[in-house]
Specification:
With 123 residues, this protein is an alpha/beta fold. The chain has a domain at 29-99 and 106-113. The chain contains 4 helices and 3 strands. The longest helix is centred in the middle third of the chain and has 11 residues, at 68-78. The N and C termini lie far apart (38 Å).
Length: 123
């Protein structure tokens, strides 16, 4: 029997205006858009710590997790007061290889905006 996931009514999400810090740890395949649903409920968030992994996949991986442009859009749109964003991802992916230069280039906004932004990426 297939599991059905209920649809999300974007106009009926709770707002947690008192929440200023969130640590989100995932060990399952999510995508940035589901994370955006969580963040839009916390408009006054100041600190966001995101950990993903270790996740093992031969083929499937939500590649948008490695897209800095997507992260920039989500963070600027839903958590405008964010002052600290820390994320750690551990991914063991066999195929296809990821072009690390594309990943690094997508996060250049963060390098320019935050003087103490550090990024370590390895494959």
């Amino acid at each position: 029997v297939p599991i059905t996931i209920p649809s999300i009514n974007e106009n009926d999400l709770p707002v947690l205006s008192q929440a200023v810090s969130l640590e989100l740890i995932l060990f399952v395949a999510w995508n940035n858009y589901l994370i955006a649903y969580i963040l839009r409920c916390m408009p006054n968030l100041r600190y966001f710590f995101f950990t993903f992994g270790p996740y093992i996949s031969k083929h499937f991986f939500p590649i948008e997790l490695l897209d800095g442009y997507v992260w920039q859009e989500i963070l600027e749109l839903y958590v405008p007061y964010l002052s600290k964003f820390e994320f750690h991802m551990s991914i063991w992916k066999c195929y296809p290889p990821t072009d690390l230069d594309i990943v690094i280039d997508s996060f250049k906004h963060f390098v320019r905006k935050y003087s103490n932004w550090h990024m370590i990426i390895d494959q």
